[in-house]
Amino acid sequence: MNPSDILTGRQIAAARALVSLSQDALAKAAGISVKTLRRMEANSVNLPAPDPQTCKVTAVRQALERAGALLVPEDGVAGAGVRLKFTRLDTRQINRWEGEGGLPADDDIA
């Protein structure tokens, strides 16, 4: 198993908090139930992602990454962690844009 395929419940909760997503919002973005997400976050052991196409862990990872979280695997020197893909200023700007409303792609530039 690739170390980058492992995700802990603590990482999920930390990443969710870091990108300011509620459990409801993350569950919806990942296509899972809130109950499933709560069980995942409460799990203190590693959550493997055996099948990238159908695995709930993979769906949660992808939703967190789309929201701006960078999930850092354990590397033998330091433990697993979470950080932002963007600076705090970038994240605030993205959140402001997301809150502007309108239909998706209305403001896309061709």
Overview of this protein structure:
- The protein has 110 residues and is mainly alpha-helical.
- It has one domain: 434 Repressor (Amino-terminal Domain) (Orthogonal Bundle), CATH 1.10.260.
- The protein is 45% helix and 11% strand.
- The chain has 5 helices and 4 strands; from the N terminus they run E-H-H-H-E-H-E-E-H.
- The chain has helices at residues 9-18, 23-30, 34-42, 56-66, 88-98, and strands spanning 7-8, 46-47, 69-72, 81-84.
- Strands 1-2 form a two-stranded antiparallel ribbon. Strands 3-4 form a two-stranded antiparallel sheet.
- Helix 1 crosses helix 3 (34-42), helix 2 (23-30) packs across helix 3 (34-42) and helix 2 packs across helix 4 (56-66).
- It is globular.
- The model has no long low-confidence stretch (mean pLDDT 79).
Write the layout of secondary structure elements.
Elements: E1 7-8, H1 9-18, H2 23-30, H3 34-42, E2 46-47, H4 56-66, E3 69-72, E4 81-84, H5 88-98
Antiparallel strand pairs: 1-2, 3-4
Number of strands: 4
- Specify the biggest β-sheet: 2 strands, antiparallel
Instruction: Write down the Rg.
Output: 15 Å
Give the % helix: 40-55%
Contiguous low-pLDDT stretches (5 residues minimum) are none
Please name the fourth-level CATH homologous superfamily.
Answer: lambda repressor-like DNA-binding domains
Mean pLDDT, all residues: 79
CATH class: Mainly Alpha
3D shape: globular
Our count of helices gives 5
* Terminal Cα span: 41 Å
Q: Which strands sit side by side, in order, in the main sheet?
A: 1-2
